[in-house]
Amino acid sequence: APRSEMTPESSVAAQKALGADIIIPLDELPPYHITRERLHASVRLSHRWMARSLRAHLDDPRQQAMYAVVHGGVDREFRAESAEYLASLPFDGFAIGGSLGKDRAEMLELLGYLMPRLPTSKPNHLLGIADPESAEAVVPFGIDTMDSCNPTRIARHGVLLTSKGPLKIKNTRYATDYGPIDGEVHTISHSRSYLHHLFKQHEPLFMTLASQHNLTFMNQLMA
């Protein structure tokens, strides 16, 4: 099979061609279970790539922003090292990436340590975390923005977000439930019964409406 080569510079060029408002540099994402020596090597590799990406970006800014990606896994020493090094460079903001722990508690503990080490004068973004519970939990730590495929991914599997928790629309009891998806948060003007029917019939429209509902719910949650 043909192979393609990607470099920090080509990654930046591709994102500039797309007109990205915020460019995320090429980095390495090591697994959670990794030796400390290998993790440190990965952090340093990502730092080199980000420095190259920043140089390419500053040569042709185009009114676009570039965020550095803070790495180090759950190792506090490496996270502090990454934050200190990247804060010394003229990035427009910071994205928190890499492994954030095996559960939400470990992630929050990590953020409690890391966030005070990032400049408060620049925005920060949490990569890959945006379920309702986590979103509400990380905001007090100073997280400005976040992203995740979670709302659309669970929508494809028939899970709708509501103010009372996740709703599994495939359950038989929703076949004759003509009420709104969420009685407290208005998202789409379709009943639970209709969404249940679409899901059971494998109608492509279901994924569109369910995704629209979940994204609107998250948008209102964070407003």
Automatic annotation (TrEMBL):
Keywords, ordered alphabetically: Metal-binding
Domain tRNA-guanine(15) transglycosylase-like: 4-223
GO BP field: tRNA modification
Listed InterPro entries: TGT-like_sf, tRNA_ribo_trans-like
Highest taxon in the source lineage: Eukaryota
Entry GO MF terms: metal ion binding
Entry keyword S-adenosyl-L-methionine: no
Protein known as: tRNA-guanine(15) transglycosylase-like domain-containing protein
Organism for this UniProt entry: Haptolina brevifila
